Amino acid sequence: MMDSQQVEALIVSTLEDSKARDIQVLDVSKLSSFTDKMVIATGTSTTHVRSTGNAVAQAFKEAGEPPMGVEAGPEPDWVLVDLGNAIVHVMTESARAHYQLEKLWNIKPGDGASLDSANG
């Protein structure tokens, strides 16, 4: 079984390989009973959002840790991949701006949130 750092590393590397943008890893372990990490990334189109979500799910299947669930509509502006101790949200820019998950979780710099330096 992968530890939380291995899970985070595989998520981030898969998102980077898929050319997702603005990857943020939020530590929500003190705020949530159902997951420890929330990862949010932006895709350039609904096709890119879908393929990026599928890439994350596939990476974990190949690692022997298949996702608990993948949620997406037919033309998704948001794909959610539930990995148990981590939840990955891949969203179009407009969906991300609309839902503002970082604000929803009230994460401020220094509260355990880390910004992916590869996109800065």
From TrEMBL:
One of its GO terms (biological process) is cytosolic ribosome assembly. Belongs to the Iojap/RsfS family. Keywords: Cytoplasm, Repressor, Translation regulation. One of its GO terms (molecular function) is ribosomal large subunit binding. It is found in: Cytoplasm. PANTHER family: IOJAP SUPERFAMILY ORTHOLOG, MITOCHONDRIAL ASSEMBLY OF RIBOSOMAL LARGE SUBUNIT PROTEIN 1. HAMAP family: Iojap_RsfS (MF_01477). Functions as a ribosomal silencing factor. Interacts with ribosomal protein uL14 (rplN), blocking formation of intersubunit bridge B8. Prevents association of the 30S and 50S ribosomal subunits and the formation of functional ribosomes, thus repressing translation. Pfam families: RsfS (PF02410). NCBIfam families: rsfS_iojap_ybeB. The lineage of its organism: Bacteria, Pseudomonadati, Pseudomonadota, Gammaproteobacteria, Thiotrichales. Interacts with ribosomal protein uL14 (rplN). This is Ribosomal silencing factor RsfS. One of its GO terms (cellular component) is cytoplasm. InterPro entries: Iojap/RsfS/C7orf30, NT_sf.
